[in-house]
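Reviewer 2 asked us to include a model.

Predict the structure of this chain.
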Amino acid sequence: MKTFAVKQYFRRLILLSNNISLGIDAGGTYTDAALVNMDDHRILQSEKALTTYPNPLGGIQDVLDKLDPEILKQTRLLSVSTTFATNTILEKNGAPVALILIGTQKVPEHLRDNCVVVKGGHNYRGVENEELDLDGIREYVLSVKDKVSAFAVSSFYSILNPDHEKAARSLIHELTGYPVVCGYELAHALGAYERGVTAYLNASLLPVARMFLEAVAEETKRRGMNVKTTMLKCNGAVAMFSEVMERPVETIFSGPAASVLGASFLSGKETCLAIDVGGTSTDVSMIEDGIPQISDLGATVGGWKTKVRAIKMETIAAGGDSHIWVDAGNILEARAPSVKIGPRRVIPLCRAAIMYPELSETIKNHWTPHNMSLNEFFQKTTLLLKSGYEAVNLSPEEIKVYQKIPSVPVFADDLDWKDFGGEIQFEIIEALVNKRLIQLIGFTPTDVLHVTGEFEEWDADAAQLGARKLAEIFSMAKEDFCRFMKRKFAKIMAVETVLFLNDTFSREELNAFMDKFGKGYGSSSAGDSYMRFKIDIPIILIGAPVRCFIPELEEFLDAEIIAPEHYAVGNAVGCLAGKLARRIETRIDVESKEEENGDWTIRYTVYTNDGQRSFSNKNGAVQYAETYAKKDIYKYMAENDIKENDVEIHVKTKEMIYDPQKPPVQIEVLIEGFAENKV
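Predicted model (structure tokens):
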């Protein structure tokens, strides 16, 4: 009774706070939620639920159900990160879009059937190359308007003069009323090809983003929450839901951005490396003086190279749910069997045994295949079943294989393959797995931790059974095999960390070098245990249950390695650590002519979305660029209820000089505005 009274007292104290925020991260395996008092950075409550596919809203509802409803009603800010944009691109489930390229441009290989090139565009001075072919645009739009739901437009050198993109947009609106995404609105850097791809992907994500974000907003209203709603972008900044609905492509990789912000927030370290171990991948990123490091290259997702600014990260397809499987090797090549982690994600045995109680008996009674026949889909611990997704656009052979697969776990060799001459159709199985029609169950790092006793979320007996089956291939005890796999997984984290800081190494070199480290399996001599890579900034671990890997990581890395309190929901907390930000890049071209008397006549031309303006002196041009950018930034912040005094402005000026004896040929002015994401 006394304990209950104390809990009620602290609950009343929480409800008195007027600065409670909610962060939600819908990751690959789990959807995490954290209620945070932003005044003192206390985590008031955190919960986890399994992410739901293909719509993550179900997982969000499940995790919200676990949170105190009265505290939820006191929440004033909601910030979300999710994989919906990345998954939509990877799974090619975006809305149908037509891309119009203006000027002499290369058509993206992926888009040959969804793209047209018309005359127009500008040169490197923003001067029109040739007149815009409005008749060509009209003809194309009318021919495809019944097949698409949006249009994307990208014109040559539109970052210096967007007039042709604006004219095309006006015409398309007049003809169809459909959404139109212009490249100049999304990217201010050179690269017409990447701008076109970025505009296309953004247009394809529009209905997906709107459906998801409106559903989340409706869910909060249903629970009596009156919240400001924001989402974390892949550069570590946040944006209002209304902005994300217009520019959803900027949210790809929001999860890794959330992890590095969460690592800094939870550890109190303004400068640190973050290692985020998720279900599918392990990501390494860095924050310096409170600002995430941004890649100089645009984000690349699913083979699409974009102009989206994203955090710099190293990633590898190895996570808590990654498939641990044995490669049989090759006698002719003198290649011995080896154990691999990933890249494919599977349902861990320990979790599958809860979902399918008969699983352990199925594994025990299964005939063990010969070790030299093993491949990714033919293992002592790997089963398959139908995923439940709708099967469409399958070849006749794929249909025959798909119809063999039951809705309960089964080994591939237990199925009837007579109509295929007795041969298991591994290539077709792989194709159906890639199409998400077949789900795999297998041994994973999560199972490893159930065997070592460091994680107890699911069925440890199923994990023990899987470990024994794999360990016997290498004549090892299951405990030794799992210690070996823990160290192997830690080495993956260590290798990615070193690669992030220094890419002059190759991954192969680092793996071979680290095999000699430490006191575990693979070290070659006692002296090697004194060798480690030294890293002078803290390494913060995020994701459940990363704490278990600290001893193994310390064998490879000489660094302060921290798993802060609430590390398991670090991404949900990171959603709340992002700031509102606005970045304006302005280019100033410099035309100079040396007179006979040795003086220089110089003209500075400033390019903005409002057009060009020329100045006779550098200070006037730079000041105009700064004034224009700040006006835009303050307007953006005001739209988000942020006052000018609460905006932090950063100004960077870069001059391109080819000859020190001559004036610069170009000046770039970068203005960034930051403000706390608060109500």
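The CA atoms of residues 495 and 507 lie 7 Å apart. Confidence is low (pLDDT under 50) at residues 520-527. We have added this to the supplementary material.
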